[in-house]
Every structure is written in structure tokens, then in C-alpha cells.
Design a protein that fits this description.
homotetramer, alpha/beta, seven-stranded mixed beta sheet, disordered N terminus
Chain lengths: 294, 294, 294, 294
């Protein structure tokens, strides 16, 4: 049942460079020249200049097979250019699979969807473990051969629970935490201390229906489309940078339960796209917005 | 350049009955029996029961050519059933074209779109006149053979302007006022006194970006879809019953001007659908929501 | 992990009447009067008249709790009306769960999606068994507590295999066969003898890319949207009545493997909708087309 | 009523370079270095490598205000690189507005839509003239201040008519011919001799319903979505490279006239996007497919 995208076949010999810096002339040429000069063949390059922020963003995917030098030499050369041009940068080699943790509560649809996509080779990463404030999904998770941590969260134990979660994240060197309909609010302190990126799925078309019970409120407002939003979690609840959104048509015939059913499909699709793009280093943050090179 | 939908060919001999009442058994049978008993042939019937409001809604379109009786007798029979079952009802004969007024400011795209669709036979109504707080669109409107009223609106003249608008609406027996990107806020008093229905197009996916400058705010929030919403105007600004909504994909590459350009297409499509459905008596109001039998 | 839609809560006390007949006046009144006369309360009624075929279609869902008579008496009354008006009709009581068989080959995504939706209460039926020409999916199916039949199909054994499939379908009184990416072509003889309805998912936007390898051909044609189509299987391959279709955007960046990945999501969504609508008696056949009361 | 996108404000000082060549290493670096070396600041760069064709495509938009040299010197440098790397290239300065001719028959919706978008500044070009095989749209076109040529086309006069069209295209140095629902088939000879690019709008989701009467055939097939396709016209009718496609949902309630009405909106949107992208040099041809840098 494991399938891999044929288009990823060369992935072992490619690398992806992400760059953010103040906009100025010569940025594209400087990076292209540096990579070319070391024998790197550019496969894809996307760039964007945000005119308001005055920031430049670039994603370059290149083949490493033809490098004249070793990786360290290449990285030193990039670092030199970056210093000169005030670039923040990150270089990822295709083999270096990211480590992912999934937080859930009782709803299983986003979790199962991610586990299935991972098994099908659609989402390239290592799913290190799943944590939940309930133990109901433990058998399901273990069936997929993934570790499960039951971390109870109550008003009294919240601080303790978050400390345990943070310890797990640090100890297992997690790169990305996916909140797959995790029904607890993470404290600002957690998000500050968490070294991993955190992606959340919100079950509405943000900024509509910020906060709780969005399907019920969508029903009460009588909207004709429902939506879902995947975003980076920040201390400002439901206000983090949006990665992806989508909507589905609904009508007066749809009760709250129908909106929830339709919404589950949206949540799965939107979260999967956001996670996939993040893992492929396609998402850059610009203030409270994202640049997505899809 | 005038085209008519062939599917509307029989329209001269049909009538549409709209009914709203508390839900109870026997409603469908009572109306069907009454219509059949007078020789009316039911072409379409849509119904909906709102479980929260406990209300029943029905739209019946029937042929009048085979009526055994005159219209008055049929209407008396319907009135009798309606009284017995506490129904609010409205019967419209296909020939009785609704009279429409359009309010605009400077943006012309929704106005031109409505005028063109009217000319193409897509929107069956009589466009009685266009009113604007600017005179820039007068030549364009008159080119379509439609009367134009320039009614200046300032903080000082607002009450006076609204009185003039209301007088025009009453004098020309307007059934529907379309706010086609009219940039003035109508006072609660206006909406209370206005005998016509009022449909507004809001340039966002409500309830996201309620209020002014929604495209700028959508840009600043970094949403990945922009939307438009057609709704009945009520005293609560942007809070009236939603008739139709739609969205279009956008990305980090879209500046505010791009969102406005894409949004113009959305506004035209969404407003035209709402106006068309309203004119075909397909929209019923249920509290602050709509039932749309499309 | 089992959830049921709250909106289906009353389902044990409802029934659904499907009617098809030549169009004439008085049809709606006759049925409404008959049901009302026996104490049935109509919850929903949808109807459609096909002007080309001259056929009338109606779906009536009603509560049976208030019936004055027993079911048999009601059915006799309906049969009498039906005879008089040349109606074909089918009455289904909500408790009478349909029995479903799923045919698959190696691709598991549609199968797993249906099994998960069934477990979540989205698809109300009994999944009697899964049959495959490969044994690879047997452990997965059995994990869901569903019987698995491995029926080998080769050029030599095809007739024999189809006989075995037909025997299984008959013996277990299957109402619906779902071809969930079953890669074998069923013979016209099979479809003729099969008492169950058969729904297939085709991985293109029919009638584009009829036949094999639609994703490869979509790639080669350079389309900007890919689609999926759920349809009733008939002897004319890929030509049966279409129940549901949907599309997803693609671009020059998408290779065949990307189209296949995106397509898997489409196939799952489109097939699930079609199966759900069929199981809720929302789909009527009109020549080679469908009427879907969704 | 003339509006211009603020995002185009700097357009007078930018240029766009389109490049196609066999894929090899160093392409990106060579071009970036050449532009940078002459003082050109790259604003946007999109690239694509087609793995099947082994072709490389790039679109670079850059500011010319800071050029150290004159345009001729820059062009000579690009030509030198291009020769070395077997590149086909085209350089367009933002001021050099393309000249467009529109062919129509009787349907006016795509024509009016293009004229309105042009007036609103959405489509940057000069609309040189409109040609039609009917004279019905002459007053409308002239109202927009655009020249109108009535060129009668019959079986007898077709060769003569095409000669007249070609002469007009050549004499007025047309860059792009838009077939805005032009109901005549252009001969292979015309397309061969025509120096301008030719974009057609087909009223179906190609390759479904290739040929005539697609809405009627869509109705007869019972599809659940209708579509429209903008493509470059080639000698193989309806087989040219697809630039853009979109679809709209339909149902059993939609008669042919409803499909035509919905389709008009699709045709307008899809054609306008294709024309806009073409005029902005965002479309490159790769065999019988397109690369669209949108």
C-alpha cells in the first residue's frame, strides 16, 4: 500500500534553499551565480517581492549530484553571500526527512487522513508520535505503527501537560507539530518555547467565525459556503499566518450536522495541502502572511 | 441584441405561489389539492421545513392556462386555505414584471452588468431608473434608455436625499432596490419606510470583513480566497439575510488592486444571481436567513 | 469512532417514495392527497419534469409515525394511484438498510474512504463484503470487520469469475455494487444479470478521456483542470448515467503523478457523494441521465 | 470610467523577457548574470522545466530604469547568451502595447466583456478593430470608439474573406486575434499565413464536446458541470494548446438555455483571463501545451 510519487524519484539528490531578505537589486543574480559556480543545477526557482514589507523571498530547488565541491563549501559560499545581502536562509537536503508530531483530541478524521497520506507517500516526513488529551484514538494510531502519548489536560494540569509536551517535542527533535483538530488552546508560553513550527486547522473560513463552534455559527448566520483554514499557530488565537483555505457550497437544507460532515472533507483537504507544502519548504512567512510557492 | 431564454417561453401562462407558515401536517396536500381542484397544473414545487424555527416554506409554480375558474376565484380559495393554516402567501403571475431601481455611486461594473443582463433577457424585470450620488454614470445609463436621477448625498443633505429617494420609490411603485456598489449607508429609517425589498452586494465573504475596505483588509490578513456576498439590506449593516456568496482563489502575488479586479467579477456574478433568484420569487426569508429554491 | 448524523435521528420513522411517470396534470395532488389521507406527514418533496422525455419525477420523504393505517394499506393505496397514472414507484422505509458490495483491484484510496465514512455514519448501509481480483487488500478490509472475497480474473477465468461474483451478489441479496477503482471491465452479460445497481468511479471529467489512462491523457492534452465522474455502470463503457462530477485545478507544474495524487482526492469525494445520494434514494434515472434531488 | 491598476504604475519602466530552450545547467545563472551586469533589477522570475520535452521556460520581468547601458546593448548581450545556449527569446518593453483584433459573429457577450475590461484598464492593449461576418454589432462596437469591419463569409466568398482579413491584420500590424465566439471555421491556410497569435474561446470543457453545439450535447449527456476553454487556434480544430479552463455546476433542472446562460459567464471569464495572460507575456507554448506563469 506504500506508493511514492515518481516525480520525487530524484529527491535524494536535490536540495532546497529558502531565502528572505530586504529587497535590493542583484539578489537573484548573486544566488544563481553562487549555486552555478559550485556546479548546482537549478531545477525550480520561485521568487516574490512584497512591496509593502519591502521583503524579497526565494525558493530554489537544485540538483546536488553535479556539485564540484562538498556541501560544506557550498554552504560557506551561501553564508557569505547571505551575510553580504542580509539574508536569512535555510538549506534542506532532500534526504533529511522532517520529524512530525500530531496533536489530536477525539475527532479522528484529520488524523487518519494524515496517516493514510503518509502511508501512501503523499506526505514525506517521519511521523514520530501522536499526542492526545484522550486515549480513545490510541488503538487506531498504534495500528499504523506510530507511538501514542496520552497527556491529560485539565485546568489544573494544563501547565504540567504543556511541559510534558514540550519535553517530548525537544527530546524527539520534532520539526513540525500538526494540530489535527486538537481541542485545547495552547498557551502563549507553549508556542514561545516550542522549537517546532505549529500548524493548526480551523474549521471556518477565517477571519469569519474566529473562536469556538464555527459550524453552529455558520448555520445561524445562514452563509452559503462553509470553509476551513490551515494556519501557523501563534499566541493570537486564530490570527496566525494563513497557509491555505478552501470552501464548499451549502444551502438552507444543511443542518449543523451536514455542515460538520461537509466540513470534515474540507478540513482534511486543506490541512493536508498545508502540511505537504510546509514539508516541501514551499511556505515562507512574511509578517502575519505567507508566501506559498505551490 | 435582445435574447430571451426559451425555457421562459410559457412564462405568460404561469404563476408562482410562495407560502410561509408554522410547520404542521397536511400543508402540502392542502395546497396541491386546492390548485388541482381549480385546474392549475403544478410545474415545479420546492419546499423546506426549518427545524429550528418550526417554519414551513413552499414555492409552487403552476400553469394557469387550464384553470377552470377565473384568477379571483382561485385566489379566494388560496386565501381560505391560508387563513385556516396561518399561512403568509404571495401569488405572482408571470406577466406581472417587477419594477427595479438601481442605486450606484462611481463604480460602474455591477451596474453595467445588470443592464447588459437585462438587455440579454437574463433578468426579467423593468429597470425603472438608476439613482446615484454622483453624476458620472448618467451618460452610460441613458445610453441604455434608462432614466437617471442624480441625488446628492452629504452629511447635511442625507435626510433630504433619502426622502427624495423614498418619494421616487413610492411614486414609481418600485418592487426591488438593488444597491450596486452604492457607497452610502442607508439609514435605519430609510429601510423601515422603504416598501421595496433592498438587495446589497458586499465585497467580502461575510461575516469576514464586515464594514469598510474589505479588499484592503483581506490583503492585510493574507487570506487565500476572496469573496462577495449578496444580502438583503437591513438596519444592521452587513448583517442582513444572505442570498448568495462566492469566492475566488488569490495568492501572495495579488496586491490590493488585483483583489479588487478579481473581486469585480465575483461581485457581478453574485449580485446577478441574487437579483435573478429574487425576481423569480425563489428567495424566502426565515429569520435572518434565506431559503433559496434555485 | 462511530458517529451518526443528528439530522438522521428520526430516520427510523420515515419513509421515502420515489415516483417516475409520464407527465400529466394532477400528479402532485394525487400523491399528496393519498399520503395525507393515511396520516403521513410529508417532510420533503422534490419534483422534476423533463420536458424532452415528457417524464415526471418525484421524491417524497414522509413521517410514518402518525399513519392511521398499517403499511400494507398505505402501499395498496399508493399502488392504486400508481396504476391509474402509469407510475413506476418504490417505497423505502428508513430502517431497511441497503446492502452494499465493493469491488476493488489494488488501489485502496476509494475503498478506505468508503469504509471510514461508513464507520463515521456518513454512509448508511451494510457493507456486506469486498471482492477483489488481487488479495493485497484483504488484511485491510478484514481490519474493518468486513468479509473479503479474492476472485481471480484472467482472460481465461473471466466468465467463471463473473459467475462467482453474480452468485455472491444474489446469495447475499446485494442492493448496490460500488466499483471503487475496480480495474476489470464487467461484461455486458454481467451487468444485465446483476440485480443490484452498479456505481463506478471514472478518473476523468467524462466525456473527456473516455477509456484507459485518463490522467496520462489529461497530462498529454495539457488541460488546466482534472476531474472525476461517478456514474451508473452500463454495457456501454463510461457511457452510463452520470450521478456526480467534480474538478480540481492543475497546471504545467503537475506531472502525471501529481494529477494522480490530486485525482485520488477527487475520486474519493465524488464517489462518496454519489454513493450517499444513491443510498438515500435521491437519484432517479431518466434515459441516460440522472435526476439528483440533493 | 477609465481605471488603471495601481500595481501597473511602474509599467513604463519594466521589460519582460521570455525564453525557451533545451534544458541544461547554468541557464538561470547565465540570464540573471547578464541582466544584473547591465543594471537590470529583476522583479519577478518564473521558470519551468518540462521533463518530457526536455525544454526550459523562463519569464523574467525586470526594471529598466537602472540600466547602465542602452536597450540595444542589453539586447545584444541577451542575443549572445541566447545563441550560446540555443535559446529562443522575446523581449517586450512595457510601453509597447500589443495590437488586438477581435472576430465576432452575432453573440455579443464576449465582445462587450472585452471592450468593458479594456476600458476599465484590466486588459492592456490597443483594440485596433472588430471584424464580423454580420453587421448587427456595428453600432455597439462604434459606441466604444472602435473600428468595425463587416466581412461577409459564405461558402463562395470564404477564400476572399480570409484574404481580406489577412490583409487587414497585416496592414494594421495586429499582434493578437481574439475569436470572441466567431462562428466561422478559419482555414488551415489562414492560420498558417496569419502573423498574429490567435486565441479562441470554445464553449465546453475540452476535450469534452469537441466540435459544434457543445451545450446541447452537454445537456444530452447529462453532465453535472459545464465548462469553457480558451486555447490557441491551430489547424486542428479545438485541438490547439489550452490556456485556461473553468467550469460551473449544473443539474437536471438546467435546460439547454440555462446551460447557455451559465456558459456565457464562463466564456467571458475564461477568455478574459487567457487574453490578459497572453498580453502580459505570461503564456509560453510547449508542444501542444502551454506554460502559464500566472
Amino acid at each position: 500500500m506504500t506508493r511514492r510519487d515518481p516525480s520525487d524519484e530524484r529527491s535524494g539528490e536535490t536540495a532546497t534553499l529558502l531565502v528572505t531578505c530586504p529587497d535590493r537589486t542583484g539578489l537573484v543574480a548573486a544566488l544563481a551565480q553562487t549555486l552555478y559556480g559550485h556546479g548546482a543545477n537549478i531545477l525550480d526557482a520561485d521568487q516574490h517581492t512584497d512591496p509593502v514589507a519591502g521583503q524579497f523571498f526565494q525558493r530554489i530547488r537544485f540538483e546536488t549530484a553535479g556539485l564540484h565541491t562538498d556541501r560544506l563549501t557550498l554552504e560557506r559560499a551561501i553564508a557569505e553571500v547571505a551575510e553580504r545581502l542580509s539574508m536569512r536562509w535555510r538549506l534542506t537536503y532532500a534526504g533529511a526527512t522532517k520529524r512530525v508530531a500530531i496533536f489530536v483530541s477525539r475527532y479522528d478524521h484529520c488524523l487518519v487522513d494524515l496517516l493514510l497520506r503518509h502511508r501512501a507517500g503523499e506526505i514525506e516526513c517521519e511521523i514520530a508520535w501522536v499526542a492526545s488529551n484522550h486515549d480513545t484514538l490510541q488503538p487506531l494510531v498504534e495500528q499504523f505503527g506510530v507511538a501514542f502519548h496520552h497527556i491529560l489536560v485539565t485546568a489544573q494540569t494544563k501547565a504540567e501537560a504543556e511541559a510534558a509536551q514540550l519535553a517530548l517535542i525537544e527530546r524527539s527533535r520534532i520539526d513540525l507539530v500538526v494540530l489535527a483538530r486538537y481541542m485545547q488552546i495552547l498557551s502563549p508560553g507553549f508556542l514561545e518555547q516550542c522549537a517546532a513550527d505549529v500548524i493548526n486547522i480551523h474549521h471556518s473560513f477565517l477571519p469569519a467565525f474566529v473562536g469556538g463552534k464555527p459550524y453552529r455559527r455558520a448555520y445561524e448566520r445562514g452563509v452559503k459556503l462553509i470553509g476551513a483554514t490551515a494556519h501557523y499557530a501563534t499566541a493570537d488565537l486564530d490570527e496566525g499566518p494563513i497557509i491555505e483555505q478552501d470552501v464548499m457550497r451549502c444551502s438552507h437544507r444543511d443542518h449543523v450536522a451536514d455542515l460538520m460532515r461537509k466540513g470534515r472533507d474540507l478540513e482534511k483537504l486543506v490541512l493536508a495541502r498545508a502540511v505537504r507544502w510546509h514539508l516541501q519548504d514551499r511556505v515562507l512567512i512574511c509578517g502575519n502572511k505567507t508566501v506559498v510557492f505551490d
